[in-house]
Amino acid sequence: MAEVYDLVVIGTGPGGYVCAIRAAQLGMKVCVVEKRKTHGGTCLNVGCIPSKALLHASELFEEAGHEFAPLGIRIPAPELDLPTMMKHKQDVIDGNVGGIQFLLKKNKIDVVHGTGSILSKGNVGVALEDGTNSVIETRNIVIATGSDVARLPGIEIDEQVVVSSTGALELASVPKKMIVVGAGVIGLELGSVWRRLGAEVTVVEYLDRILPGMDLDTCKTFQRILAKQGFAFKLGTKVTGVEKTEAGAVVSLEPAAGGETETVEADVVLIAIGRVPYTEGLGLEAVGVARDERGRIEVNDHFQTSVQGIYAIGDVIRGAMLAHKAEDEGVAVAEILAGQHGHVNYDVIPGVVYTMPEIASVGKTEEDLKAAGVVYSVGKFPFTANGRAKAMRHTEGFVKVIADKATDRVLGVHILGAGAGEMIHEAAVLMEFGGSSEDLARTCHAHPTMSEAVKEAAMAVDKRAIHM
Ligand code: FAD
Ligand code: NAI
Predict the structure, then answer these.
(1) To test the ligand 2 pocket, which listed residue (254, 275, 316, 361) has its Cβ within 8 A of the most ligand atoms?
(2) pLDDT tens-digit profile of 71-95?
């Protein structure tokens, strides 16, 4: 008789594979279904990991070209070897996806490659790679099918001239002119990669600001830094059409509020206007799993969908589309299934934009607090006043600590600076424990480190920063 699993997870991105491993650790018999040849989902195959491989390599390329001479290192102008840079990216992907395969095996998780669908509460159908179908019986199902690129109506993504992030991670040559549609995380990260490698990059954004949702004051400074690096911005502008030509593409633009159309030429157009939940072919309607108006699977606090025994996590449900959010939900739902108290604290999920400098944020922005009518104090400390930042010529940016005016509890921390993505976590730990700016200010920080600016910003909440 075929085995009945405790849990079948559909999709092995950061949400799915982490959920499967945690469930196996807790003694469950687990099977995963994945339609890709490799595990790791968007994140490891075409997202976080490959983008960071190219961001790192292109950052060093730019540093070697422009930043070494002032440090007394004279080298000839660096030459780009794009095929080798792309091979580095592929090696990083291969190493990471191979690691997940190893972990699934180590945790005795059965793997089925094919496209999963939910036939009924306890039955997952799989269209296998060889064209046959199979049915897996299970007590619980976790849907972790992630997200897909959002498209602009009437604009076809061919992944050559008009590309999504996936195509932008594997361009065969450096475009002369690149138009990035959307000043979100993908647009600024992948725009940075190709600008550093020599492209002229223009970012077209519908809103009148970059990185909506992140702290506005931090983003304004960041935009000025990006403009100094060579980015051109067209904010408050919408793309009304993209026409492919022999040389590339002609993009039609219009003020967001309406007005005269203008056209700009580009070799490559990157569409980065967000991502949408991916539920195609899962058969959700037939089993009665409800979705909201944005197509996201609806879940309760325990990640259960409208059908008992069917759960969902990651990009396919509400909340930030971030790998670590998906992972934490994977752990939480596995623990809930094991009768434990799995939980995700959505107030303390860091977000990082891996540009140079980086932006890292956790908790509330000033805009959030104003909208909620919370009275707060701000402490800000610039990296120009930090010894280590000066030694490394990384003086751009600042740390900003926002604390409740009455209780001093830290409500948000925003860092713009080199290495911000590593520095943010002391703030996350502090906030997880409900700490105050006083707690942070009285914690000894090693000297000389960039992190001293975090302590100084906490001191600045009470107007007692020492080095400013
Ligand atoms: P996914 O990673 O999308 O995985 C879903 C998996 O389900 C896929 O493998 C898919 O093949 C599979 N699947 C779907 N349907 C079926 C089916 N019917 N049957 C079987 N399998 C199925 N986030 C960060 O936190 N940091 C970053 O630096 C970052 N960088 C990014 C860069 C880019 C270019 C992109 C596009 C995204 C980035 N993200 C980043 C977002 C991150 O990739 C996602 O938030 C994360 O991958 C979501 O995880 P998930 O498990 O929910 O879904
Ligand atoms: P995003 O939501 O971050 O940004 C999309 C941008 O496009 C927004 O600024 C939006 O106002 C703009 N926009 C929307 N429609 C437009 C239009 N028609 N014309 C012009 N501008 C338009 O989405 P993005 O950058 O595509 O990233 C998708 C997801 O992937 C994000 O949710 C993000 O969390 C995740 N991601 C995370 C990364 C990280 O954590 N470092 C890196 C890359 C992606």
Answers:
(1) 275
(2) 999 999 999 999 999 999 999 999 9
